[in-house]
Amino acid sequence: MNIGQASNASGVTAKMIRYYEQIGLVRPADRTDSNYRSFNDRDINDLRFIKRARSLGFSVKEITNLLSLWRDRTRPSREVKGIADGHVADLRSRIAEMQAMADTLSALSDCCAGDDRPDCPILSNLSGDTPAIAPDQSQA
Amino acid sequence: MNIGQASNASGVTAKMIRYYEQIGLVRPADRTDSNYRSFNDRDINDLRFIKRARSLGFSVKEITNLLSLWRDRTRPSREVKGIADGHVADLRSRIAEMQAMADTLSALSDCCAGDDRPDCPILSNLSGDTPAIAPDQSQA
DNA sequence: CCTTGACCTTCCTATGATGGGAAGGGGTAG
DNA sequence: CTACCCCTTCCCATCATAGGAAGGTCAAGG
Question: Does B77 touch chain A (CB under 8 A)?
Fold first, then answer.
């Protein structure tokens, strides 16, 4: 399988496959006589693994760990769970942050007429006139 | 006020103030004879505005628009509301995405013993053994 | 056999917002 | 006058991804 076929089979773009190889996330693929990369089923499995882990929001660094744990048949599941839980905590904290932003902003938007008149509580708030509605104006 | 004082007064780092000037988000500050940037109260207000808008997750591009609307006393509030609502929608969709990741992952983690044994449903799922629990394995 | 078109290779560049750091000049207090 | 801190510009790094250029390769068909 050349890189285009591997891309189709794994859902990872050719560009990203080369990148993952370059940063050492996957082992360098075999090469044909004409220097084309050649992928086997195991490579495809790795790429699919990566694809799924990325879709769950794991960083490349985390995936490096997950991949090596995946290949180690004797690893304790504790380690994997640790990585996963850390990532969940990270996700939840980012979610909370964005949720707070969305709530603040949509409250402001609800107060805004949204018509031809220039009065706008959204801009008023951003310019500091009404600090009450912005809970984290000074340090966020 | 030189850039350090402006930074303290606005909460925007000196580094970022220079960057915002460079990309045209704020007008170039006045210069002293010795080429130091010199900021007045209005500049500080702009920087504070930017700081707050960033803390609400607006991109620099969005803030460019907000700033020009802010300066235009006759703008219709509709435009501002439009930007804000678009941004809220964007936030909410990213939140939903991350929420789905977190839920999937924490369900997997709940199934993982997290002890010395090697069996790990998290890795099993990532490697494609149990596709049922991953709702968006193919396109996300 | 040669051309065409699709594919591959490497290398460079950009994104967005931010931080780090080097090299050199300025300003002020002691 | 000399420290010492602040300022200046310029370069580089992050993270994951995409775009593109220049050139080599392969398979199919004329």
Answer: yes
Beta-ladder partners of B31: B37
Q: Give the residue from B121, B119, B100, B99 showing the smallest Cα distance to B109.
A: B121
How far is Cα A29 from Cα A31, in angstroms, rounded to an integer?
6
* B117 within 8 A of A79, measured Cβ to Cβ: no
Q: Is A38 helix (H, G, I), strand (E, B) or coil?
A: strand
pLDDT at A3 exceeding the cut of 70: yes
What is the pLDDT, as a whole number, of residue B139? 36
Closest B-chain CA to A115: B78
Beta bridge partners of B37: B31
- Identify the pLDDT of residue B129: 64
Say which amino acid occupies B72: D
Cα(A111)–Cα(A124) distance, integer angstroms? 11
CB contact under 8 A, B88 and A106: yes
CA–C1' span, B4 to C22, in Å?
20
Cα separations in angstroms, B126 against A66, A69, B89, B105, B115: 9, 12, 30, 10, 19
pLDDT score for A113: 92
CA distance B140 to B131: 14
Interface contact A128-B102, CB threshold 8 A: no
Which of A78-87, A88-97, A119-128, B3-12 comes out lowest in average pLDDT? A119-128
Sign of CA dihedral A62, A63, A67, A68: negative
Check residue B28 and report its DSSP letter: P
